[in-house]
Specification:
6-stranded mixed beta sheet; flat; 6-stranded antiparallel beta sheet; 19 strands; 3 helices
Amino acid sequence: MNSTNLQNYRWYHGQVNRGNTEQLLMGKEPGIYLVRDSKTSTGDFVLSVSENHKVSHYIINNNGNHYKIGDQTFADIPSIISFYKNHFLDTTTLTGAVERDLKVRAIYNFEGRDPDDLPFQKGDILTIVSQDEESWWTAENRIGQRGSIPVPYVQIINNDQPSNPRTPIRPPSTPVQTGVVNPPINTYVDPYRGGRGGSQHRNSAPEPIRPAEIPPRPTMPKPTSGPLLARAVIDRVCTPYDTNQIAFKKGDLIKVTKQNDNGIWEGELNGKTGEFPMSHVDLIDPNTMEPFSNGY
């Protein structure tokens, strides 16, 4: 997990330095934390925590396919956060985060299609309230209106990047045009005109990079019978200290008991209950034992 992936977590503050970190945490109740990049060890991270009237800084070593903090090893940084919410670091567990504001800039106009959409104009700055789905987030505009926005139509304004980054957010499957500098006037389909699929054409000069299609809002599958099951897509190893975590082998079937918004789910395997990252599994339909077609 690199810093680009971590941008989705508001407890990650990027390249904030030690001095500013201590200003953010000093005086906070024990257990308030944030994660930042290490200034002294490139590629590593630091878990900074308010505890015992001071701010403690714990190095997180990035070993490529796993992360170490002290003598503990984890698959990813969210797993570290989850673990220390139930285990003491020195004098405290993690009780809450100093969350950075996650702001995005609109790179295309969005007129809205459903009553719960939040329309915006290119250039508008929005604050992300929650990251509900891969392609749809909840945002708030400058006058306090809230609603759903399509992620491919905005770009994150990172704390550690220039104020006008050029790379938009898009799902991995979205095709990207390259080498286009001054595209000619042509006809394209606006996916938000004429209903799904964009049946109404209009002439325009599209941006050099434009999402070709926005997926419909996904809904969490509900099996017609049996529990919600997940199949492990990779092996997961836990240390003996990870008493609230589940280890599994690729192909194992896990009964999902809770789907937390932070991506750390809870489930049961071989009589053991615990937590695991949702990125390590595919949800499957218990009726067909195949992954759900909508990607969950």
